[in-house]
Amino acid sequence: MNPPTAIPKTTDLYENYVAPTYGRFRVAPVRGQGCWLWDEDGKKYLDFGGGIAVCSLGHAHPRMAGALHAQALSLIHCSNLYQFPAQGKLAQLLVEKVMGIPGKIFFANSGAEANEALYKLARRYGAQRPKANGDARTEMLTFGSSFHGRTLAGIAATGQEKVKAGFGPLVPGFRHLPYNDTAALEAAITEDTVAILLEPVQGEGGIHVATPDFLKTAHALCQKHDCLLLLDEIQCGIGRTGHLRGWETALGEDPTLAGIVPDGVSWAKGIGGGFPFGAVWLNAHHRKTEAPIADLLGAGSHGTTYGGSPLACAVVTAVLEEILEKGLPEHAAAMGAYVREKLAEAEIPFLKDIRGLGLMLGLVLDAEAVSALPACQAAGQSPAIFVVNALNKAKLLTVPAGADVVRLLPALNVTEAEIDTAVFMLKATLERLAAA
Ligand SMILES: *Cc1c(COP(=O)(O)O)cnc(C)c1O
Question: Is the CB of 233 under 6 A from ligand 1?
């Protein structure tokens, strides 16, 4: 008789069978509800990581699950050779309600893939509107500590050495400038420049918000030099900053006065609420030169098998409609202010600064003080990873960014009570670390 087979622990299965591309935490969630998660042992966590700014509606949202179920029973996939009501309807919603600027949508399946469409758009634009000598313009300006995804072009666009190391030769045509340095940007434009790509709020790089001056300068330069202003709103878009359009939150009080119209915007993460999805909005034409943009990638020039499937579009439409009908961007703004107020009251040790907008918040740690803790030294971890691990053990999930930032990215429909609980857990955990 064979002995009963032992049930392998999830962490052992990862160890043996899953490529080690992530430094994974020892948390194994199996079920979620709203802002809460349960692991294999039934332990309950408060999720303020939100799947890295993805779970806009929280976990197991009935409207999202309902749309998924209903669409799966009618049509999941059919290919982009045909036309689906769900894709047409979602494109209209994104152009008219989310952007409110004439343009068109290209559908993809992830953030990196959405950005790929922007790089190809810029290359095409530069080929069609070349330099004086007839050669294509090919240079895209991107910024230090940016993150644009893990494809070969994505790591070339990204302004962080750690994502590029060991993957050369890099895709040419990207030049990095310091973020929020208006003078450097003005000085960088050459006759080879075809686009400026930036995150209005940098996420992975540690939550840095673009200054209104920087955004206005980028826009003015693109107008003047016939370049494309491309905004990566993959993490900061669709309500997280307190506004559907993240760059408008960054612009501040009266964004319409600034008159900034991008030429391309990429979305993923929060727009799908957890369904794998990416999309780009393409401006109808360049404001100044009137050169066509949205129709530049014509038949046969670009595509993807799954992008904008009936299933994806039905689910994402449900997510967007919930965000719009419930006023979740405004709620995110109010809850972001509430988090800041509660954190200020709580007087939490090691907390040096809070950066970000709405519910895209970075808690900046006193890196020196955390690194000096014997437990942090023994663990050999960065201050951010060490603190996130300690919070995980206290059953509050957060996301590290860079060496010294802990991100709070809860669902957009998070409640004041949940924020109170999270701040209480943060305070208790960091006070315990400080006392050790
Ligand atoms: C996450 C992210 C990406 C990459 O998205 P994937 O879906 O992981 O490919 C690109 N840009 C920004 C700003 C992101 O936060």
Answer: no
Closest CA to 232 of 257, 260, 258, 269: 269
Q: Kindly report the protein residue whose alpha carbon is nearest to atom 5 of ligand 1.
A: 111
Q: Cβ contacts of residue 95 below 8 Å, gap of 6+?
A: 101, 102, 103, 104, 105, 281
Rounded distance from Cα 247 to ligand 1 centre (Å):
16
Give the CA count within 13 Å in the CB-facing half-sphere of 350.
Answer: 26
pLDDT band at 254 (very low <50, low <70, confident <90, very high): confident
Q: Is 199 in the pocket of ligand 1 (CB under 6 A)?
A: yes
d(CA 395, CA 348): 18
C-alpha–C-alpha distance, residues 244 and 404, integer Å: 28
For residue 238, the one-letter residue type is: I
**Residues paired with 202 in a beta bridge:** 208
> For ligand 1, is residue 146 a contact (CB within 6 Å)?
no
CB-count burial class (<10 Å; 0-12, 13-18, 19+) for 324 = middle
Condensed to tens digits (0 to 9), the pLDDT of residues 77-94 reads 999 999 999 999 999 999
Q: What does pTM read for this prediction?
A: 0.97
Q: Whose CA is nearest to atom 8 of ligand 1?
A: 111
Q: Which phi and psi (to 5°) does residue 378 adopt?
A: -65, -35
DSSP assignment of 17-52: HS---S---S--EEEEEBTEEEETT--EEEESSHHH
122 C-alpha vs ligand 1 centroid, how far in Å? Answer: 19
Strand partners, 45: 37
- Look at ligand 1, atom 11, and give the residue with the nearest C-alpha: 148
Burial class (CB in 10 A: 0-12, 13-18, 19+), 163: middle
Q: Is the CB of 53 under 6 A from ligand 1?
A: no
Whether ligand 1 lies within 6 angstroms of the CB of 240 is answered as: no
Rg (CA), the chain: 22
What is the rounded CA–CA span in Å between residue 352 and residue 406?
11
> Using CA of residue 423, residue 415, residue 271, residue 122, what is the dihedral sign?
negative
Token pair listed for 143: 């910024």
Is the model's pLDDT at 26 over the cut of 80? yes
Backbone φ, ψ for residue 64 (5° rounding): -70, -45
Residue 51: CB within 6 Å of ligand 1?
A: no
